[in-house]
Amino acid sequence: MASHFCLLLIFTFFTLVFPSNGSSLSSSKLLPRFPRYTFQNREARIQQFRGDRNEYRYETKFFSQQLDHFSFADLPKFSQRYLINSDHWLGASALGPIFLYCGNEGDIEWFATNSGFIWDIAPKFGALLVFPEHRYYGESMPYGSREEAYKNATTLSYLTTEQALADFAVFVTDLKRNLSAEACPVVLFGGSYGGMLAAWMRLKYPHIAIGALASSAPILQFEDVVPPETFYDIASNDFKRESSSCFNTIKDSWDAIIAEGQKENGLLQLTKTFHFCRVLNSTDDLSDWLDSAYSYLAMVDYPYPADFMMPLPGHPIREVCRKIDGAGSNASILDRIYAGISVYYNYTGNVDCFKLDDDPHGLDGWNWQACTEMVMPMSSNQENSMFPGYGFNYSSYKEECWNTFRVNPRPKWVTTEFGGHDIATTLKSFGSNIIFSNGLLDPWSGGSVLKNLSDTIVALVTKEGAHHLDLRPSTPEDPKWLVDQREAEIRLIQGWIETYRVEKEAKVSLLKRSW
User: Fold this and answer.
1) Which one of 384, 471, 492, 502 has the fewest CB atoms closer than 10 angstroms to its CB?
2) What is the CA radius of gyration of the chain?
3) Which CATH number does 226-345 carry?
């Protein structure tokens, strides 16, 4: 495939990936991303949620936030949006806990409305729920507007994980002060990039939060901490375990796409086969579209119907492979691929034609983060993967970041700032009260912590789980292993809070005796 500017998220979350040949950067390829919405479907999704689950009520408020927490320059402040629900809060006098979800790279309402686990357990804990939005996303825009905030490298320079974590720390400290709840324990939650933020915040601000549930948090997906082909190997195995013939059909389809595209009127024929609304500009456009869908399917291969990314059936990869393998004997390889991919892009059958992204570079905040500190190398091994083979080429990565933002990445900054190498020793020595939850079907699980590192740094791993499935709301269709995983999380969180309260009460008792 042609060289490409490859953008990965949220959740969310984009990582730039390039093939090893370093030829001209003529096209862009949307690659696996942390699940998230687009601006186009934001309102539709939020309105649908409000109609389906109106029991999730919250107030929307704004907090005046520093633009730069690490200097004393006279810079304009910005309004950070947050959502809050106090329906079940025990109150400050009872040391009612505060559950804080670390906002991801997108609109905070979308993350709040897809984190049903937190809402489900709030009554049991008597918790106050708060969902602060990540700076430069949703409605939390510095400089007054998205246009101004995203204007250039100077205005974007305050979009960093360090600033975002400081936002959360300052916000919750001020909130507790205003509620006279300084003594109330804070527990952090997050999924995907938000899970990374939750884990990092617990490490950076242990005096502010007593623990963190970091779901599907690939904190090790940096430098050479894990092999760069990990993501695509796991995604490929998700398909292979359902059907080896399905895996092979997808693996063979990339060459079939290129061969068809090279024919006279080949792009027109591909456009018709895959029902696009406009004629393809290149075969890369189609390959990127398919690549994105397969990656998302691996992430959201949930055991029951869900509409987190798209309306999908339970075990969607199984259904995709059933369509691919079940196509008629006269069906071409590309006809089979279309039948399968329609499960992801058109399971409802309501789409007449498919639209490709008219802005393939999608110059949003995550692209900036990926071009500065969130450098997550990826590659695809053609021997093990069903995806086209390519290697990570940092020189091309750096060049594209410079051409796009006039900025050079710092690929070693995350491991310097938060750690990553020899994570077991680091967390065992300096960390506590972090749950790393992962489902092994999730391609991001390969970049997370998958074994217990101490009594308090715990890994909860499920063989059949997918991307932060544990954070989704409970349903009657939940398999026993998922119920058990959530119960284990509840017990651990309960233990953190009980230990905190005992220690707090002991200090109060000691003070009273000293009086």
Assistant:
1) 502
2) 23
3) 1.20.120.980
